[in-house]
Amino acid sequence: MMASAAALRTRDLAVGYRTRRTRRAVLEHVNLAVDSGELVCLLGANGIGKSTLLRTIARMQPPLRGSVELGGADLRAVSHAELARRLGVVLTERVAVDALTVRQIVGLGRYPHSGWFGGLAARDRAAVDWAIEAVGVRHLAARDFSRLSDGERQRVMIARALAQEPVVLVLDEPTAFLDVPSRVELMGLLRQLTRDRPIAVVVSTHDLELALRTADTIWLLMPGGDIVTGAPEDVVLCGAIGQAFEGRQIRFHQEERSFRLLTGKSGVTAVHGAGLRASLAVAVLEREGFEVATAGAARPALAVHALDAGWRLCTDEGECRGTDFASLAACLRRRRTGS
Amino acid sequence: MSRRDATILLGLALLTSVVFLLSLALGSTPLPWRRVAAALLGRTRDGDFASAVVSIIRLPRSMTAMLAGASLGIAGLQMQTLFRNPLADPFALGISSGASLGVALVVLGSGSGPAAAFGTAMGMRGDALITMAAIVGAALVLGLVLIVSSRIANPTTVLILGLMCGYAVSAVVTVLVGASQPERLLQWAQWGFGSFSGVTWQRLRLFGPLTVFGVLIASTTTKQLNALLLGENYARSMGLAVGRARLLTMLGASVLGAVVTAFCGPISFLGIAVPHLCRGLLGTSDHRVLVPAVVLMGSAAALTAQIVSLLPGEAGVLPLNAVTSLMGAPVVVAVLLRGRRGALAG
């Protein structure tokens, strides 16, 4: 892709906070670009500067140095209304507004397009209808916004941003307050938006596993200020995710693309069997702090057999069996405290 | 605007007209409708008592009430939306206290104080001097608050700043009251009651254009106010120059509050109550509907308060401030309890 095609680009950007005397840079030398139709997930540990970066990109705070370009134009040279026509924003904050319908809220997105009193022309109403349709809330259009669930509200806020008809959509942790299905749906919605039309989406999230499954590109903020960018799989492969998030208690598992809790070393076990029951038995063992031996290793002292109707645990001292995983966990715990 | 909203606005307009006519007919001496109508249409004989009462006393008084009610209502609506606080009113930035200080300096220290001396030198006496003092006092406090608040990002901090400023200025007024002579205190208390009767035709020539202009300016902020419903961050992201909008809205609302206070005294309740009544009535936060509703409702409420304050007839006049609050508080409570719809969230 040619450099000029980027919907959004930062050049040697430094973001942070400036008070009367001090200047605290959170991130420096940031050179990033997003193309139309690209979904970017911004990842990083708490407090590392995700929001600061997004706020600077959306011109909600000034850069310390460098520039942000929107379709090739420097953000500093763009008027408030012009910026709003090109860039839409969705924030974490819960919007507390009573007695406005969904359609009215989405209509507010026409702010940078509409006239002095905010009256909507036919073209504005068409854009509102399109935005409501695009996020799949048409059945809620006449409802009072304050009576919606958190997930529905965020969809409406996205529709409102889409009604601005932006080329770039920036979302700062839009899934923070949502339950798991709503999170998955919301990320799916963002992905669909980039597929259907030439819009660039940048979304920050804590939901790493979901981001790795959904994004076209990952921007990973590393401790120390580096930014690793690339396709999710490339970022997984280079091991940067582990460096960014791993602590004493957790490890990133590259094959599963998820984190695991380290619970100590209680021993090594072998697992026999196949299918869902076997993998769930592994999950129980890992939670209880047992390492699962790979096939072909030296015969460990413990062996768990996943059966059609339960499990069997074989040890040096004998054997016990049960039907549910709670009893397997209890049995393992007894063994660990006993030894 | 939906058909339902239009119907409600039409109803409010009718209500305001009816109350306006009632306010001309009722008073310390009730007049028959025929005489009122004759006076209004200019078909009067010379020396007719009824037409003199209507055209010289009641008409300017009722018009003042309408203008004051509309001004306070719209200014209150602006402040409540701007600060996202259901308790905000036109005086949230301490301008009422500022006006009180100006008036206190003139009334309580008249004859000796430098403010009074200045006023006398300017050739002003009585009501004109009090109005001038109130405007100067309000402007000083407002200027101070606006200058400081332009450096503050958080609207709640601005609101607290205004409240604190108001407290400090009120304390100075209290000191002045404590040190003044009893006969001066009576005049001071009179001002504090609030009244629409002090505005004559001559003074209405200034009060009328000021308030009409202020209300018109405020009506043009509907779009900004709607954007601010989502909070300042979202408003900014949708293209609103938040800093400038906030400053202009505070300035406009405060000037409206200050003008009304200067001419009619500190009328406390309407600015808070009228926006709540309109939200409850219309069930919406859309300012394109709320602004005209608040103008009509504010006029009707002020006229009603004016009528009630004259109910004792020969026995005298009830303090306007007491009437607005006594009448309005139960109504607002009822509206809020009836359902959360329409109340400002938060």
Question: How are the elements arranged and paired?
Answer:
The complex is a heterodimer of chains A (about 350) and B (about 350).
Chain A: E1 6-18, E2 23-30, E3 33-35, E4 39-44, H1 50-57, E5 65-70, E6 73-74, H2 80-86, E7 87-90, H3 102-108, H4 122-134, H5 150-163, E8 168-172, H6 180-196, E9 200-204, H7 208-214, E10 217-221, E11 227-230, H8 232-237, H9 240-245, E12 250-253, E13 258-261, E14 267-272, H10 275-287, E15 290-292, E16 302-307, E17 310-315, E18 318-322, H11 325-338
Parallel strand pairs in A: 4-9, 4-10, 7-8, 8-9, 14-15, 14-16
Antiparallel strand pairs in A: 1-2, 1-3, 1-5, 5-6, 10-11, 12-13, 16-17, 17-18
Chain B: H1 3-25, H2 33-41, H3 49-82, H4 95-108, H5 114-121, H6 126-149, H7 155-178, H8 182-193, H9 201-219, H10 222-228, H11 232-237, H12 242-264, H13 270-282, H14 287-309, H15 320-338
Helix pairs in contact in B: 1-3, 1-14, 2-3, 3-9, 3-12, 3-13, 3-14, 4-5, 4-6, 4-7, 4-8, 6-7, 6-12, 9-12, 13-14, 13-15, 14-15
Structure commentary:
The complex is a heterodimer of chains A (339) and B (346). Chain A is an alpha/beta fold and 339 residues long. Chain A folds into two domains: 3-253, P-loop containing nucleotide triphosphate hydrolases (Rossmann fold, 3-Layer(aba) Sandwich), CATH 3.40.50.300; 267-338, no CATH class. Helices cover 33% and strands 28% of the residues of chain A. Chain A contains eleven helices and 18 strands. Chain A has a six-stranded mixed sheet with strand order 7-8-9-4-10-11, with helices on both faces. In chain A, helix 4 (122-134) packs antiparallel against helix 5. Chain B is mainly α and 346 residues long. Chain B has one domain (3-338): ABC transporter involved in vitamin B12 uptake, BtuC. Helix content of chain B is 75%, strand content 0%. Chain B has helices spanning 3-25, 33-41, 49-82, 95-108, 114-121, 126-149, 155-178, 182-193, 201-219, 222-228, 232-237, 242-264, 270-282, 287-309, 320-338. In chain B, helix 4 (95-108) packs antiparallel against helix 8 and helix 9 (201-219) runs antiparallel to helix 12. The longest helix of chain B has 34 residues, at 49-82. The interface between A and B is medium-sized, with 35 and 30 residues.
